[in-house]
Amino acid sequence: MPLYEYGCPACGVFEAFLPMARCREDVACPQCATASPRVASAPALGVLSGALRAAHAANERSAHAPRSTRSGHGMGCVCCRTSPKSGKTRQTADGGKAFLNARPWMISH
């Protein structure tokens, strides 16, 4: 639950944990029980760690422009590969794949 600030006309500002669904309601002051409206205050972003701030920033980016796996090439794309071919396979005349040093009785997936 978030921590909200409320302003009592008699006692001043106090804080209360409330569910987000009740954020617009007036809350009774803990000292004098007067109905008090919520006070607009700045979030305490300065007390967050750098890692947590980076996580919030990444979450904001993904909310506006989510990265799709279908945009671009998938993992192991042959045209984007930077390493040379391994040389452990060769293509047969009928288009099949043959392993050079494999056991002939094993079936490939």
UniProtKB/TrEMBL annotation:
InterPro entries: Regulatory_FmdB_Zinc_ribbon (IPR013429). Residues 1-41 form the Putative regulatory protein FmdB zinc ribbon domain. Pfam families: Zn_ribbon_8. This is Regulatory protein, putative. It comes from plant metagenome.
